Amino acid sequence: MKKIIFTAIILLMVSCSEKEIVIDCGCVEVQEKLISTRSPYYPFWLNNSWEESGAKNDLEECYTDEEISYMVREVGTKERWYITCSNN
Fold first, then answer.
1. Which long-range contacts link 44-53 to residues 24+ away (Cβ below 8 Å)?
2. How many CB atoms lie within 10 A of CB 30?
């Protein structure tokens, strides 16, 4: 019985001493909104451009440059989200 308890204590100490590996790629999902500027001559449009709104979502996954180029999520016709990573 003493050997079993001693073995259990050793296994517990070894399992607690291992360090967890944390991978942080710094990937963030960024929101862009379509901004339309009207021309003074109605009904013509002067400029349509995508501008960042400031909304961001942190992501835990890591992505390559090739994967990121396909990962644009459009929400309606005036909003989209894209991914950018600091490791790239």
1. 50/80
2. 15
Helix or strand run (H / E) with residue 21: none
- Greater model confidence, 7 or 27: 27
Task: Give the start-to-end residue ranges of the domains of the chain.
Answer: 27-88
Percent of the chain residues past pLDDT 70, beyond the cut: 67
Laid out side by side, the sheet with 72-75 consists of 45-58, 28-38, 79-84, 72-75
- Report pLDDT for 79: 92
Helix (H, G, I), strand (E, B) or coil at 5: helix
Asked if pLDDT for residue 45 goes beyond 70, the answer is no
CA distances (Å), origin 5, targets 2, 10, 11, 23, 73: 5, 9, 10, 36, 55
Cα(8)–Cα(14) distance, rounded to whole angstroms? 10
